[in-house]
Amino acid sequence: MALSMDRALVVLKAVAEETRFRILVLLQGGELSVSDLTDILGQSQPRISRHLKLLVDAGLIERHREGAWAFFSLAQETDISRILSTIFECLDISDRIIANDRDRLTLVRQQRAEKAQGYFSRLANEWDRLRSLHASEEAVDKAILDILGDKPIRGLLDLGTGTGHILKLLGDKASRIVGLDASHAMLSVARANLEKAGLSGVELRQGDIHVLPFERDEFDLIVLHQVLHYFDDPARAIREASRYLRPGGRLLIIDFAPHNLEFLREEQEHRRLGFSTEQMTGWFNEAGLECAATSDLPPPKGAKEALTVSIWLGQDKRIMTDWPLNGHVG
Q1: Mean per-residue pLDDT of the chain
Q2: Are residues 24 and 160 in the same domain?
Q3: 314 and which of 22, 73, 258, 284 could share a cystine (Cβ 3.0–4.6 Å)?
Q4: Phi-psi region of 30 (alpha: psi -120 to 50; beta: other; left: phi over 0)
Q5: 228: which DSSP letter?
Q6: Neighbouring-strand partners of residue 77
Q7: pTM summary value
Q8: Using one digit for the tens of pLDDT, what is the confidence trace for 169-223?
Q9: Closest CA to 123 of 175, 92, 163
Q10: Nearest to 160 by CA among 229, 93, 84, 214
Q11: Number of folded domains in the chain?
Q12: Residue at which a domain ends, from 89, 106, 123
């Protein structure tokens, strides 16, 4: 919908102030917190917060909470984003103020990455032990890409995004990229990893997988990567995720086949020791999904404690697509 004259004037008045314009230019590179912006712009938090409120009220930027933190990103509204894109294209990026802001943005991101890496390093030994029990990350990634094929992804939602690995793997295939995790610390790791990978425009949200902060029928691919085994009621998580699929959308689950490694329950909080295809197919059916394809990746040869990685692709039944039903990949 085209902007009315009154709406266009509100937008242009909001842009026509130095600090607010600098904020918009910075947000072009991805979402930032109030703390980030105060560090970059060298202004007080109350002053930055007032400018951010004006930009939110004008519809130029969007705000979302992550625990006690607030993050801001450019608005997704088509007409407003088109105005901003035109302005940005005409902008001289060598301008002294803009160049200095971008230098400080780089420094803030470096500091953020160092903090995230420190958190990740504290968990590394546990994760390394687990990874040694199953197929390599490269092999799993290839199987994921194979099972998804070349079908376009308009909206991707990664539930329990953790370090953001799935977003990096599939980000260049999706028009909209969203990651959700309950942990602010893990979202900090994901944010740093995605920035390092040069993946911009990613939406990271803190939230509960059972109470998703999105509209129904909003995504055509939702991913649960090594997440389901942490839930007491996996069927409920699948039902909830399926409600946010567009008609014909797909739910991709990567987890373990049934196993008896009790230390994962005792030491790493796994609630379920793997899932069978029969279980998964039943839960898919309850959620209105068809089991479209499966894939199993055996553990490394000679491993005494071993895990088989299984991949299940469910498809919304409301629209049949060209995906084969009950197929098997791998």
Answers
A1: 86
A2: no
A3: 284
A4: left
A5: G
A6: none
A7: 0.71
A8: 999 999 999 999 988 888 888 888 898 888 888 999 988 888 898 989 999 999 9
A9: 163
A10: 229
A11: 2
A12: 106
Q: Is residue 125 part of a domain?
A: no
Sheet of 69-74, strands arranged across: 32-33, 69-74, 61-66
What lies within 8 Å, CB to CB, of 196 at 6+ separation is: 113
- Cα separation, 306 vs 22, in Å, equals 53
Q: Which pLDDT belongs to residue 121?
A: 58
List the one residue out of 298, 286, 173 whose CA is nearest residue 223. 173
- Residue listed under structure tokens 């987890």: 255
Question: Could you give the CA distance from residue 63 to residue 165 in angstroms, rounded to a whole number?
Answer: 24
- One-letter amino acid of 257: A
The CATH number covering residue 74 comes to 1.10.10.10
Domain that holds residue 218: 132-328
Q: How many CB atoms are closer than 10 A to CB 24?
A: 20
Asked if 312 and 253 touch (Cβ cutoff 8 Å), the reply is yes
